[in-house]
Known about the structure:
Blueprint: H1 2-21, H2 31-79, E1 128-131, E2 134-149, E3 176-180, E4 185-195, E5 198-210, E6 224-236, E7 241-249, E8 282-292, E9 297-304, E10 323-325, E11 327-329, E12 339-341, E13 347-354, E14 360-376, E15 379-399, E16 404-414, E17 427-429, E18 435-437, E19 439-452, E20 455-466, E21 470-474, E22 477-481, E23 504-521, E24 524-539, E25 548-561
Antiparallel strand pairs: 1-2, 2-3, 2-4, 2-25, 4-5, 5-6, 6-7, 7-8, 8-9, 9-13, 10-14, 11-12, 13-14, 14-15, 15-16, 16-19, 17-18, 19-20, 20-23, 21-22, 23-24, 24-25
Helix pairs in contact: 1-2
Amino acid sequence: MTHRKTWLLASTIASVPFWLAAPARAQTDSSDARISAIEAQIKSLQSQLQQVTRELHNAQAQVARESTRAREAETRAAQTTIAPRAAPLSPGQNPQYGQAAPPGAAVGPAPAVQAVAAPPSPPSPPGQFQLGGVSVQLGGFVEAAGIFRSRNETADIASNFNAIPLPNSPQYHQTEFRGTARQSRLSLLIGGKPSDTESVAAYGEFDLQGAGANSNSLESNSYVPRVRQAYATYDNSDWGLHVLGGQAWSLLTMSKNGMVPRQENIPLTIDAQYVVGFDWARQAQLRVAKSLDEDRIWLGASLEEPQTNYYVGPNGTGVTGRTVTTTSAGGSGFSSSTNYSSDVAPDLVVKATWDPGFGHYEAYGVGRLFRTRVSSLGSGQNETTVAGGGGAAVLLPVLGNDRLNFQASALAGEGIGRYGSGQLPDATVSQSGSAKPLPEVMALAGFTSKITPRVQIYAYGGTEQIIDRAAFVSGGRGFGYGSPLYVNTGCSIELSTAGCVANTSGLVEGTLGAWWTFLKGNYGSMRLGAQYAYVKRDIFSGVGGGPSTDDNIVMVSFRYYPFE
């Protein structure tokens, strides 16, 4: 339509000279009339020209709009072209820093392919989100647990293996049932990547197993939160350097892979004290590790918070005329009802691990320094004693995909009691007033098996043994630990006043259990668990013999892991 009007206008303009040259009609036209007619025709032509100009402008605008829409369509098509997807982010990885292209990959515009809609991005793991330059991963679970013990330990979810009552106590003759939610746990992992080869992270883990001064189970069951772990890490893959600072599992604790935090091989038990023979602690530390041979070999050392568990017998220290100080009541920031040792230096833990492709292997050692103060009126001196031990551990995938795993670990030395689940003493006091470390061996072996993707079973056997007495005689009386002069005559008689010192010589436990994950999805997972344990406690013989005691423990657990 626009082209046709343009052609008519041009034809009309071209005909004007012919109109001007036409002969005048003598009978009607005058000069004035001809001028008026020409002016009218010029105005008409101007009006038509303006209309054509407007229509031409509108046409050009329409063409521009169509061109814009075409370019937008091309852009959308290019954005939906199939392209390789990056590997999904692991928890703690910062998506701000992308992965480098693999060696040999082409760089530049991708070749044109047929435009198709890209598949939707996979949802983030439950509880993971981005916050500025760091990624955040929530974790933990809520638990309802039931506990039955054949002996009344008066204990919550963490059993006290070294305090199983003997027959002289009424508690030996009582069973114990308790319900608890105090093992419920919350964790928070925050991480970022300053560069392609560096990563930083902070991790915190908390539960409700703390007991305040007024905590009780009468009505409100108001127990307090406690810190399990709180630490920061720095990793540099170029250097193979790994640094950890804060409260974490001790480097002595067995791992599943290298010395990677949060990859500790913790027993699967419901019991929060785990299993007799398990080597562990959670304490403040500064750890430095070096990974070699594409992370197959790790070498590490850790300076860890020291604390000494002393035993002083019923007759005192036996140091005549002098006072021996081993511990003091807690001051600022500590519980005033708990005694703390005065330590001269941190515990030093060293470890080497090897992951050759089949199994995980460890060798480790710990060095410790114990200190006492021997005082008399107006003078005194500090006594420092060296202690420590060494051990090894192995984790073997007997059948792949966690269908059957075997593990074993052992630690032997002097003054290592605090690193075992049985919590046997580290040391007693020698005749000179210095610390006398107790010689000890602890060991653990076990199997775990995922018999189906949702059912996992486990069985462990462990022991902790004081392999020799650390005792002396002075003035016809026994001192130290395990003295044969200690009176055990009343240990087998309820409410006897005859005496029952009962120094533990060893602990043995066998336990088995299972976990069933009956729900699992993008809402997390829910599990049911059950555990049975038999624990035997033996006593060093003394006057009246060497009694023993035992405990049968059954625990059940219902857990919801919303972020798993």
